[in-house]
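Design request, tokens follow.
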């Protein structure tokens, strides 16, 4: 069994940063997708932790959600999701998939 890749980490690192979403992200791999009952071909940033009282929790994001797009731009890795969110301020529209389906979520980082 191959070890899971290390989490990308909190976006951005500690909550003291200029913006804070309140999630830990990891790149979705085919084995992780299968474990979550998702298509192994699915790509995106897997949410591995949601901190209480954060914009992510208020927006309804959950552990196991996969961020597939940020502001209409497809993201294939946790790093790409962070990069797109850091590229502009304000509300972000996330396309999120989990075992129940796909939805759009608006979130405003702190």
């Amino acid at each position: 069994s191959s070890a899971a890749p290390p989490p990308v980490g909190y976006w951005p690192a500690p909550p003291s940063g200029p913006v804070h979403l309140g999630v830990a992200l990891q790149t979705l791999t085919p084995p992780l997708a299968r474990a979550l009952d998702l298509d192994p071909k699915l790509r995106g940033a897997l949410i591995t932790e949601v901190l209480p009282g954060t914009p992510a929790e208020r927006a309804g994001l959950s552990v196991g959600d996969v961020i597939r797009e940020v502001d209409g731009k497809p993201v294939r890795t946790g790093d790409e999701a962070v990069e797109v969110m850091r590229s502009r301020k304000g509300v972000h529209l996330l396309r999120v998939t989990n075992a129940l389906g796909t939805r759009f979520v608006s979130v405003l980082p702190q």
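Comment from the thread starter after seeing the answer: thanks! The radius of gyration is 13 Å.
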